[in-house]
Amino acid sequence: MNDAPLDPLTALRPWEAPEVTSWGRLPMNAVDRRSGAVPLDGDWRFQLLPAPDAPLGEAWSSSYVPGVWTMQGTGDLPRYLNIRMPFAEFPPEVPAANPTGVYEREVDVPAEWAGRRIVLQVGAAESVLLVHVDGRPAGISKDAHLAAEFDLAGLVRPGERATVRLTVVKWSDASHIEDQDQWWHGGITRSVLLYAVDPLHLADVTVRARRDGDLLVECRVRDAGGALPEGWYVSGELDGQLLTQDTEFDRANAEDERVSDFLGEARLRAAVPDVRTWNAETPELYGLTVRLHRADGTVADTSRHRVGFRDVEIVGRDLLVNGERVFIRGVNRHDFHPLTGRTVTYDDMRADLVLLKRFGFNAIRTAHYPNDPALYDLADELGFYVVDEADIESHDHAHEIADDPRYLGAFVDRVARMVLRDKNHPSVIIWSLGNESDYGANHDAAAGWVRRHDPTRPVQYEGAARRGWADPDLASDIACPMYAPLEECLAHALSGTQTKPLVQCEYSHAMGNSNGTLADHWAAIEATPGLQGGFIWEFWDHGILQRVNDARPAGRGGAGLYDNGVAAPGHRWAYGGDFGETDHDGAFIADGVVFPDRTPKPVMFEHREIAAPVRIEAFRHEGVVLSNHQHFRGLEWLSGEWELSLADGDTLTAPAELPALRPGETAAVPLPFTVPEDGGEAWLTLRVTTAGDEPWAPRGTVVCLPQVRLRAALPPAHTRVPDGTVEVGEDGLLVHPLLTAAPVLSLWRAPTDNDELGGMADRWRDWGLQAPTREVVSVRRSPGRVAVVSEYLCAGGTVRHEQVITAVDGGLIVDESAELPEALYDVPRVGTVFETVAGLNLLEWFGKGPWESYPDRAAGAPVGRHRLPVDELFTPYLRPQESGGRHGVRRFTLSASDATGLAVRLDRARQVSVTRHRAADLAAVAHHDELVPRAGCVVHIDAAHRGLGTASCGPDTFASYLVAAGIHRWSWTLRVL
Ligand code: GAL
Ligand code: MG
User: Fold this and answer.
1) Among 115, 263, 585, 613, which is most buried by a count of CB atoms within 10 Å?
2) What pLDDT digit, counting tens, does each position of 350-389 carry?
């Protein structure tokens, strides 16, 4: 037993006391104290205790701050669970075994801080933070994604050294409302710093900047010591223009004893003529400096802000930014890094946002907690609409907690602190009360606080919205469902009962090879008043870089051990279950539009095109009609180049003159080419790039690639007059010098995450589609032709397959048909698969590309001539699955370095894939690093291929993208190069 006197903070047992949201913590505000502060990041002494009341040991190790100890070799490892809590206790209780990190370091308090108020700021700690200075209690904080500040008056002395101890308790009552779908970690995730201000200082600044140029700045001055001295005043300056004092307010205020006794308030105003308004396309910012002056005019405190003039309002059922019904092309973003878990740097955040900008996104939901302050600065600067979400998710115990009065304070506290911190960011257009926490009185309390404190922005909460999208009384001004089927959204918008903007807070679940029907969604959104967009779930695949030999996180030492979405040899991207835990939610954590190293997945290109600011609306004989699909910007920031791709000819290019178009306008521009008589199918692409440097993209960055078909393909003119010989074996299988496995029928794909979680994969396995027994019914040989009829016997039914191979001048024509019985009503594919000899390493094709595309995710891949090494065709989804497909392929060649190889021409545009893996290879392993590439190529030519949909969480693909039962026919020619 440890008989040392119990520490008062520990004695409170704040980890099981939801009523205790903080103790000794200063109120949140919007004054940025980062500059001029003493940073305390770096290595701290560290001990990991088994429980918060366990005695401290003798031996210290060290831990890097900011960082989570779960990624720093402590043996307490990351754990992934989606909904379920990692322990069985009911809120507010937690298990006795409760890892507790004790961080300690010495801090030299600058001597020149004498007489000032000294504040410790801890950027974020999960989940309970206890602060001691020289063994004396300084404070307690919860709310794992917002900073906590503590006044160290009386605890430290300027010019002396103090020992700061931060004790972080991993499991607490707060964990029950921080049950977001992500890894569980423990630690200090954002920077720690120490700063000083005068006792009388700017306590808070609230900026209201409207699109008409009206600026109102409200300042609060706090005197830690008591009354306000005579003659002090506040001034403001906006890009050099002095703000005026709101003297009327000051006078009224001076008479109000309640205010002036304790808290000084001042109002400043300006009317900015010809104001440059802020929006996500042109994020114009002004610099505001607010100063607190002593009676003699000297400056006691300064607060700097960047101001964006803009209005957000809901009019009818439209969400308007500066009067425009903007589309919300959003993504849900978690704080994630494959080496540091939850700690992200400024550069990381900037890289995230720059990438999103380049791929057409204009909005972020901070799923599911407030982000680092720097993220909002970046969003202001680069141009994003932000739904700022409070750190409240009680998913596993949602119903109990939403109305539990013990948690009332925590709900209001979390929402209020977020609003107090972020209210001055023009990027923040909506407050969110949290995620997946049912709906109860605690939400209404929080909503009530926000509505009074900040009437300038709407409030949303999915849990309330789900009670009725049009219900006027609920805590959500936005109908913000998650994964609502498109037809439901459409029906609502067309019902005549819609009262609120419909912006899905989550849609199009990006797990694995996914995001089918995204383009269909956007076609509907853009065409339907009442629909305004949504936020794709989600940005990141949260794969943690892991050493395969000891199954430990690589941590900060893993820098550079990945490239292009793939972990270096000896490493892999870990997901749920990979750290030895038996209870977990597997690869559901890998559901982002980027790989763990931020390499874009193919869906990003789809999104970029869907968001295209310039579109080709139509093709007429005299030219094409271009339109401007932005809300605020002209086309002057873009330049263009025309590309004419001929299926059987060269690609021609010509500079494009983009017309001057305001948003919503269209103009006809003449065709830059005379389309050659021959060359077959012809496509015109407008390659749109940035004309100059944008803050998020250098000049020449591709913005979109709109396309129009100028001439259709002619039907293939095969004569089918036999000329030559066809060699097949007894079994009717083609013998060919370049093929190591003859073309056979394929009905299966390695199930995608959507196929698995949507239940299709089980059905396919039950039907035995992965390995049917092939039985030859007949082999009929005639000169230059072989016709083989076979049956593929599956548990679910028998598929009759016919393959007629005709030798013609220079190659083989393969005519195939397959008849699927009604019982096989939704199979992943019907087509041909064969395998080639090694050495054919380059694929050149005419069709959609160059990136991966599937029938319901093909809008962003322009038709043209593309070429890629075979090894680059495959997309390394974390859990191997169907991958690497190319949609709309008309012909391809597969060649060796000496240009020998094979050429295939298809009867019409079809789904093709060329990889190093059989479907069974992919389905047999759980991680990409377990795949052993084959030397040759596995080639699929599909008569029909099922769409991808998003059934891992949300709607499946549409009926039109399913593979129907009945007869499928396809043909192709094979030629040796
Ligand atoms: C939503 C939830 C997200 C995530 C997603 C599935 O229900 O809000 O946090 O769990 O589903 O990936
Ligand atoms: Mg959840």
Assistant:
1) 613
2) 999 999 999 999 999 999 999 999 999 999 999 999 999 9
Q: Which of 236, 46, 98, 881 is nearest to 511 (CA)?
A: 881
pLDDT at res. 228: 61
Cβ–ligand 1 contact at 883 (below 6 Å)? no
Task: Please check the confidence at residue 881 and state whether its pLDDT lies above 90.
Answer: yes
Q: How confident is the model at residue 260 (pLDDT cuts 50, 70, 90)?
A: very low
Which two tokens mark 584?
């977990």
Residue for token pair 């991958």: 883
- List pLDDT tens digits, range 285-344: 999 999 998 889 899 999 999 999 999 999 999 999 999 999 999 999 999 999 999 999
Specify the 3-state DSSP secondary structure of 408.
helix
DSSP state at residue 176: G
Dist. CA 786–CA 779, nearest whole Å: 7
Instruction: Locate all alpha helices (DSSP H) within 707-795, ordered by sequence.
Output: 753-757, 760-767
Q: Which helix (H) or strand (E) is 10 found in, with range?
A: helix 8-11
Structure tokens belonging to residue 430: 């909506």
Contacts of 38 (CB under 8 A, 6+ apart): 107, 110, 193, 194, 195
Of the two residues 228 and 553, the one the predictor is more confident about is: 553
Which whole number is the average pLDDT over 625-652?
96
Alpha-carbon gap, residue 205 to 756, rounded angstroms? 51
CA-CA distance, 622 to 852, in Å (whole number)?
34
Q: Which two tokens stand for residue 704?
A: 């979109």
Q: How far is the CA of 550 from the centre of ligand 2 (A)?
A: 30
- Indicate the DSSP class of residue 69: G
The set of residues, in sequence order, having a beta carbon less than 8 Å from that of 653 and lying 6+ positions away, is: 641, 642, 643, 644
Ligand nearest to the CA of 83: 2
**pTM: predicted TM-score of the whole model, two decimal places:** 0.97
| Tokens matching residue 378 | 């970046």
Residue 551 near residue 73, CB atoms below 8 Å = no
Set out the domains of the chain in order of their start, with CATH numbers.
Answer: 8-197 (2.60.120.260), 211-307 (2.60.40.10), 317-541+590-605 (3.20.20.80), 543-589 (no CATH), 613-705 (2.60.40.10), 739-772+825-963 (2.70.98.10)
Ligand nearest to the CA of 514: 1
User: Is the N-terminal amide bond of 368 cis, ω within 30° of 0?
Assistant: yes
Residue linked to tokens 């073309």: 743
Protein residues with C-beta less than 5 angstroms from the ion ligand 2: 181, 395, 436
What is the arithmetic mean of pLDDT over 551-579?
Answer: 97
Among 25-29, 55-59, 233-237, the least confident range: 233-237
Pocket test for ligand 1, best of 506, 536, 540 (most atoms within 8 A of CB): 506
Task: Please give the pLDDT value at position 370.
Answer: 98
pLDDT at residue 262, rounded to an integer = 38
Q: Measured from the CB, is residue 846 less than 6 Å from ligand 1?
A: no
